[in-house]
């Protein structure tokens, strides 16, 4: 297993993964995550951000127009419930599990270790078990210190705390969880937030169960959602997709319409390789996400190594959003936004032949024709129409 060169912070697979680290690289401190800053940084925290977080209690949810009525917030908040229960169970100790701390293990590591003679077969087995528990995608990559938060956050006072994992963690299992297409089509709305909440609740169960399986085999396994490290570069390294202008990983099966979780483990596993699909070339001629962003938080032009504010990692050349503007819009709506996911031409149902043909065109030198064919797609579906749909 090769490690990044400690003098340059680069790895031989970086180019294939579409990762370019510069001399200015610094590991990200979770305290600077925009959601965490909303609790301690007066430049981010406002009455609106307080109302945004409060709206996850139904009595504090605002009632407004279509998509922001009581039933919309009711569904969204119900979708988050399992994740909420998990993330609040260790609040007394300053651990917000799944977000600002890894998920605590509810299972001991078995005393007897199942021998692994063939890491490749074990990788296949893990992918099968991941699917069994409900993951839509699974890729495996090496542990990479660059993507680990330099520090995590103690949520009692938002101070920095050590972000340590047990000795010997060498592999990361990355899981993808597809979001409901019909709900994503209604972004921006509180109703659409149910697509996000449902996947957080699902992924919490899936990473806990898969980690428990590995621990029952006698190996260390730490279940993780947004906590502990950055999921996106791990997903790229695990070959699940390619990085795009909207700051998401475009996957062949679901485009940008999914969330990622991960498990850190010392179980011997074979690694997947990153894949160049042709997404970066398509994003170079497409600006649909940047055009559609209501607060112009997404960049135009090529990937850059600058960073808009402290909520972006330093020293990585990539398309980077202005997280302060983006979250400001979320706060004003009292719900999450993913317009940039909705309008992306890769957000399509590739179980249908015509969409598979479009994808092939988009990832070929005929990408301009594919972009032209996509015109008019990605319009918002009215939340009221979603509620009208018959089962
Ligand atoms: S989530 Fe919404 S506000 Fe944020 S970058 Fe995407 S479109 Fe813009
Ligand atoms: S909308 Fe266009 S530019 Fe934005 S991520 Fe999708 S393909 Fe790339």
TrEMBL record:
Keyword Iron-sulfur found: yes
PANTHER family assigned: IRON-SULFUR CLUSTER-BINDING PROTEIN, IRON-SULFUR CLUSTER-BINDING PROTEIN-RELATED
Family annotation (Gene3D superfamilies): 3.30.70.20
Pfam families: Fer4_16
Keywords of the record: Iron, Iron-sulfur, Metal-binding
Family annotation (SUPFAM superfamilies): 4Fe-4S ferredoxins (SSF54862)
Name this polypeptide is given: 4Fe-4S double cluster binding domain-containing protein
PROSITE patterns the record matches: 4FE4S_FER_1, 4FE4S_FER_2
Superkingdom of this protein's organism: Bacteria
Ranges for domain 4Fe-4S ferredoxin-type: 274-303
Keyword Metal-binding annotated: yes
Native organism: Seohaeicola saemankumensis
